[in-house]
Amino acid sequence: MGKTYIFGHKNPDTDSIVSSIVMTNFEKKLGNTDAVACRLGAINKETEYVLNYVGIEAPELIEDVADGEEIIIVDTANPSELIPNLSNVKIKKIVDHHQVLLNTSYPVFYRAEPVGCTETIMYKLYNEYNIEIDKKIATLMLSAIISDTLLFKSPTCTETDIKAVKELSKIAELDYETYGMDMLKAGTDLSSFTIEQILSLDAKAITLKDKKSVIAQVNTASIPDVMKMKSELESGMNKMIEEQGLDLFMFLITDIVNSNSQVVALGNSASIVEKAYGVKLENNTALLKGVVSRKKQVVPIMTENA
Ligand code: MG
Ligand code: MG
Ligand code: MG
Hints:
40% of the residues lie in helices and 20% in strands. The chain is α/β, with parallel strands linked by helices. It has two domains: 4-186, inorganic pyrophosphatase (n-terminal core) (Alpha-Beta Complex), CATH 3.90.1640.10; 195-305, Roll (Diaminopimelate Epimerase, Chain A, domain 1), CATH 3.10.310.20. α1 links the parallel β1 and β2 (35-39). α1 packs parallel to α3. The longest helix is centred in the N-terminal third of the chain and has 16 residues, at 14-29. The radius of gyration is 19 Å and the shape is globular. Bound molecules: magnesium ion (3 copies). One magnesium ion is lined by residues 15, 75, 97, 117-118, 148.
């Protein structure tokens, strides 16, 4: 039997990386010994913190998968965030917590729930299949849930996510609040990245009605610290707007302590931001109070106003 390649979305976040590792563990427990954890991009600082803490290596970096091979997709169901050869591979399973944007011409194990994180669903699957969760897997799972929910502060967070973290923290034997804040703070360190890397660390290409857009996000404990790079960030954004023919580039600088985002918006359609949030962009920027979730508080309202 061939391998099963398991991966999440491009520009991987902690959930995508953790989910590829955890799903690989799950598959192996089910007897699929040829499962391989993979990733479609570089590891960010937050994920690096998690992997170091647990003491495991990053999944294998791949760009594509050959015709006919088997894959499992986690933390996305959006073809544009996956491999180029998606239509010629066999999708075995999908486990995700986003909008369903993927069709297959054959039956597939598809588990999607509107919870804050893929790992909350994986936690349920382990329980449903009576598979034991060891300390490392528990630490990985709760890290992803804390990352995606910003320690429960994101409006995407559900009671199920909170319950999962509380139960997992007993297996992981750690204080999830202290650990979670340290992990989120590790992710705010942008010092080793170039401007281009900062703009693409957590960037999603999204078409808002007919407006070709990129919505990128970074976490910070200090908005002014990131805003020191504003002019360099704007040059980088303008370059990408030109190269990719974008109508809009939105860069969200999310304050994980106070739960606000400073937005820098450029492109011919930047005024959608003003309309959507009732703010005035001054020097291309505005504070979006209480906005932390791209999925819940940005994409829907921006689409509506596009
Ligand atoms: Mg993700
Ligand atoms: Mg996720
Ligand atoms: Mg995210």
